[in-house]
Amino acid sequence: MINNNDKKLGFDDVLVIPKVSTINSRKDVNLDTRIRFPSSNVDWTGMPIMASNMDFVGTFEMGMALQNFHITTAVNKFYSTDEWVSAINQGLDLNYNFITFGLDNIELIHQTISDISAKSNQTPSIAVFDVPNGYIKSFCELISVVRKEFPALGIIAGNVVTPDGVKQLMESGADGIKVGIGSGGVCSTSATTGVGYPQLAAVIECSEEVKKSKGFIISDGGIKTSGDIVKAYSGGAGFVMLGSVLAGHEEGKASLITKDGKFYRKFYGMSSGEAMKKHYGGVANYRAPEGISILVEDRGNVEDTIHQLLGGIRSACTYINAVNISEIFEKSTFIRV
Ligand code: 5GP
């Protein structure tokens, strides 16, 4: 059965049309954006980009560097509470750094959040609940329990790629939904399982659904350039999440590897054989890896990359007459190319 005969679009299938603009300079574009979380009532302001909770990307060092740009980090879930406390004592800002959980039990979530609060005097205000398959029932049940026990916690949950997935998680109490299956740069889910959805189409369809409950979408996976970030906002995403684009930087803490006179850093999918070996002692025999390992040429300091990305977004805003990121959606018209 074919669900729908329309061609489903990826970022490379479209461009955004320029328009008559009254914005004379990129300097006139304000990138800070206010996002309201409908279920928890968190009222957040910042630059709606999120570093992915992956090894060598979602590190405290990355969080410290990105918070200077008001950019957020979903901190990977392999840090201990003591490491959180010491990062907070060194200036990690919880408005921009979000704690991450998987399909964990509620006792562990309670323990972690209350330990961090007690030892640092600061409480995480936003948490990311990240599983490869956000459709499973036990995950939705976990989100419902977390919502009940933490009424004021901003909850981002995913991943799904269809409106029914969005609806189910929003009804469970999430504020924002992470969208993307099979589109990540080091993801091999579509090859391994045949499952996936072109990323831009998923963002467009899921953002229509999430607006019914005043939530937002995080477009996660497949972004290669600042142009793709703009296309995700144009499609209706509130946030974009970046893995590959932020890999290969000093702040990710992957060791430098020398090969043929060049410097590289390691990067791998969190469901790759390498990640499973590191964090879980190996690939369980009922599973197949759904991620790959690569070497990324060393890209130095992440600041330089961020300046380029933000410059690209500012320029896009002047082309389409959007004074800020929230206006990108309403001011954008795609053409297929
Ligand atoms: P990227 O920005 O690199 O294109 O995509 C990053 C996203 O890929 C992550 O935020 C996560 O959702 C997804 N991802 C990370 N590791 C894996 C993996 O091993 N397998 C799959 N299927 N997806 C992954």
- Proportion of residues in helical segments: 25-40%
Order of helices and strands: EEEHEHEHEHEHEHHEHEEEHEHHE
- Estimated structural class: alpha/beta
The CATH topology label is: TIM Barrel
Main-sheet strand order equals: 3-4-5-6-7-8-9-10
Q: Name the overall outline.
A: globular
Tell me the number of structural domains.
1
The tally of strands reads: 14
Low-confidence segments: none
**What is the makeup of the main sheet?**
8 strands, parallel, barrel
CATH class: Alpha Beta
What Rg, in angstroms, do the CA atoms define?
19 Å
Strand portion: 15-25%
Q: Could you state the CATH homologous superfamily?
A: Aldolase class I
- The CA-CA distance between the termini, in Å, is 28 Å
Average pLDDT works out at 97
Q: Would you identify the CATH architecture? A: Alpha-Beta Barrel
How many H/I helical runs? 11
Bound ligands: guanosine-5'-monophosphate
Question: Explain this structure to me?
Answer:
The chain is an alpha/beta fold. The protein has one domain (32-253, 301-336): Aldolase class I (TIM Barrel), CATH 3.20.20. The chain has 11 helices and 14 strands. The chain has helices at 60-67, 81-89, 106-120, 137-149, 163-172, 189-193, 199-211, 226-234, 273-280, 302-320, 325-331, and strands spanning 14-16, 33-36, 43-51, 71-74, 97-101, 126-130, 154-160, 176-179, 216-220, 239-242, 256-259, 262-268, 293-297, 334-336. It has an 8-stranded parallel barrel, surrounded by 4 helices. Strands 11-12-13 form a 3-stranded antiparallel sheet. Strands 1-14 form a two-stranded antiparallel sheet. α5 (163-172) packs across α7 and α8 packs across α10 (302-320). The longest helix is centred in the last third of the chain and has 19 residues, at 302-320. It is globular. The two termini are 28 Å apart. The model has no long low-confidence stretch (mean pLDDT 97). The chain binds guanosine-5'-monophosphate. Guanosine-5'-monophosphate binds at residues 52, 54, 132, 159, 180, 184-187, 189, 220-223, 241-244, 269-272, 290-291.
